[in-house]
Design brief:
Helix content: 40-55%
Largest sheet: 5 strands, antiparallel
Distance between the termini: 56 Å
Shape: globular
């Protein structure tokens, strides 16, 4: 009996340690981009706009590396592409139990350069996050849309980068969405 209890506790501790060490890998995804930072961000923006039928609008484009540079420190380029879908955010914001998840809005995809000179895309694992917070059906759809955001057609020319202000919504002269 003692061996069973010790084995059970050891198993729980082992799973806890593995889970803790793997949390970042499970919660966040990193994908290498074949393009530079600005072109990758512009392609994500175009792909996001292509899903306007799913309620997606551009909410903003942030450049945190610029703020850091303004404070005197030099960092590689980083752009945050922000978008929101009223189709997905509406049901979450409507419900008292899930309204706290508004902290995850708008959907932010980061594009950054590493010291190896390559460009990467970072995004939240929306499907897993949705399961954890009880909105799995909605976030599974967000995850499908995210895959479209980061799938690029190399035959299409690079679109211009849309420099929307966070909270200004709409992008490219579209209707303001207040950033979702």
């Amino acid at each position: 009996m003692l061996k069973a209890v010790v084995g059970f506790i050891t198993g729980i501790v082992f799973i806890g340690i593995v889970g803790w060490n793997m949390a970042d890998v499970m919660m966040l995804r990193e994908v290498e981009s074949p393009y530079g930072v600005e072109e990758t961000a512009a392609r994500i923006q175009r792909n996001m706009q292509s899903l306007s039928a799913n309620g997606w609008t551009l909410s903003g484009l942030r450049n945190p590396a610029k703020a850091v540079a303004n404070s005197g420190m030099n960092v590689p380029p980083v752009l945050l592409v922000e978008g929101c879908s009223t189709k997905y955010s509406g049901p979450i914001l409507k419900n008292d139990a899930t309204r706290i998840l508004s902290i995850l809005m708008p959907c932010t995809i980061t594009v950054y350069k590493k010291d190896n000179g390559k460009t990467y895309i970072g995004l939240m694992n929306a499907g897993l996050m949705g399961k954890m917070f009880g909105v799995g059906d909605i976030m599974a759809q967000v995850a499908k849309d995210q895959e479209i955001f980061i799938t690029f057609d190399p035959k299409k020319p690079a679109p211009p980068l849309i420099k929307t202000s966070p909270g200004g919504g709409g992008g490219a002269g579209g209707k303001a969405s207040d950033g979702c």
